[in-house]
Amino acid sequence: MFTSQGPTLRELAVQALSSVEHGYDLLAPKFDRTPFRTPDAVLAPVARALGALGPYASGLDLCCGTGAGLGVLREVCTERAVGVDFSAGMLQVARESEPAASYVRADALALPFGPVFDLVVSFGAFGHFLPERQPELFAQVCRVLRPGGQFAFPLPAPARPGSWGYWAMLGFDGAMRVRNALWRPPFVMYYRTFRLGDVRRELDRAGFDVALRPLPELGERPDGSPRARLVVATRR
């Protein structure tokens, strides 16, 4: 699963027993050599879909990590691309991989911007927000978008009950709940708490009109439905 340049089992264990911020500071130098980095096979279809909706002037990568999603913003934004994350270690790596972007260290629940962005994207970060924090998160995104600006992110279809992926995510989330019940500080990361129905409802309450665009490059499920969609929420 990991390359020889990736983190060792001991390093992953130390990260998992740390806070979210400190854990990612520790993992940052080797993060791009793990399966946790959003793959180019996902980023490219998102960039093509947004290219058809844009162009946009300025874009923000929310919880940018090591900067994988900033390449998407560079493709679809004509003026500037900004990455925000609360891990100093991840931002340091991002600056090296995407030096043309700007970076701000901040909490996604307290964004230090006014309504200056036309596009906000995010990749793979929503598991770090418990469902009760989603209204707060979406309100922050709405606040930093200009009217008519868009919040876009890919969302995979849920794993079929009984499939390998279903049991893997169920087991991971169960292990994290046990870990957080027994150990402090908590490490919030769950795979099954970001459900489309709940997300659409909370985005609507935050002031967004929500549309779904299939990402056909990522394939179809046996019933013909897409394996992943791009959620495009437009600020009213």
From TrEMBL:
Keywords: Methyltransferase, Transferase. SUPFAM superfamilies: S-adenosyl-L-methionine-dependent methyltransferases. Gene3D superfamilies: Vaccinia Virus protein VP39. Residues 60-149 form the Methyltransferase domain. Pfam families: Methyltransf_25 (PF13649). GO terms for biological process: methylation. GO terms for molecular function: methyltransferase activity. InterPro entries: Methyltransf_25, Methyltransf_Superfamily, SAM-dependent_MTases_sf. This is Class I SAM-dependent methyltransferase. The lineage of its organism: Bacteria, Bacillati, Actinomycetota, Actinomycetes, Kitasatosporales.
